[in-house]
Amino acid sequence: MKITNRPAIAPSRRRSLRRPSVDLGLAAGMALCALITVLTIGGTAAGASGANHPVANVTATMPRPGGPATSPSLPPYYHYLVNRQYHQCMYAPGPLNGALQLATCTYSLKEQWSFQQMNIYSEPGKPNIYRIRNRDTGLCVFVNNTGPGGRIREGYCTTAANVQWELWSSSVAGSYLFVNVSTRLALDTAGGQFSQLAQWPPAGNFAQLWYLYL
Prior knowledge:
By secondary structure, this protein is mainly beta.
């Protein structure tokens, strides 16, 4: 697994305010094509559950469970988790049971995470499973076994299933998907930069993909 030192955070791009003039028929045709494309690729990013995911574009191929080299082993170092969609780091505000969020990558201790593998003797082809622990608070990433959209929090590092995360490689080079062992939902965002983190059905959109940096 290729590990890169500190991410280069892409600057925001300003959108043009000019609107091209198109006739009504062309606009309707473009909208229909976009709808057909979304339905063909896999529907909304929330997957079969129909949950209203904040990022609707499905842009990555999901990993194939049990396939070769889909779940890498991580070295015992602290990493920064950088969201592929929003180019911000996973951040721990501090209090017990506090919701995790996206924040500007400042490389503080609150943005550093270690991975403790929980299934050292797992069967071949099974995903590697980790607890994700913050360097500053000493607390682990968990969910309250809620449904899609439930917030991701930090709490005591127990052996409960809702504190454990499967790690999968994605089709986007260098990025990974985390799926909670208990809820089977993916580590994701509530939508937008600086938003809280939430869990959603695995769909492969960029908001569910994370780069790991030392």
